[in-house]
Amino acid sequence: MTSTFEKRGAALELRAKGRKLEGYAATFRQPAIIAGRFVETISPGAFAGSLRAGKDILALVDHDPGRVLARTRSGTLRLSEDSRGLAFDLDVPDTAAGRDVLALAERGDIGGMSFGFTALDEQRDGDRRELRAVELHEISVVLGWPAYEGTVIQSRARERENALRARIARTLRILELTK
Fold it and tell me: Where do the Prohead serine protease domain residues begin and end (predicted)?
């Protein structure tokens, strides 16, 4: 076993509501082909040790520590495991990175979610690898192509904001038609 920092990602689903993103940064038992070399799955409970340890885990954009969205230490990132995978809920900051991510999520242009980790317990069998325990360092919103399918990210937008946006769009269309 190696103690190498690794990154993994997955595709997403989207819904809108407020300045929050929520979903799954990793899903259990979903095979992913990693760098065309091996198939990897994550076992239920793989993140439990990191979550119990109370370690400060970051939410980033594309694994870039210069684009922090949230963190567990401040309470702006909440992580948990359930039967599906590593669930997250984060408060999107009013920063350039936060506004960009929220706008892309609302349009459905986000590639997926990812996570950075060090494998603590893994089982290998030929070209298959099962992650049984990992030290979680960060989760990331991935703008391009993630490794794992099945992760979920949801942007939650308030109904009043959506109604206001619809009204503004109608007004702009009317103004365009009257020119």
Answer: 18-163
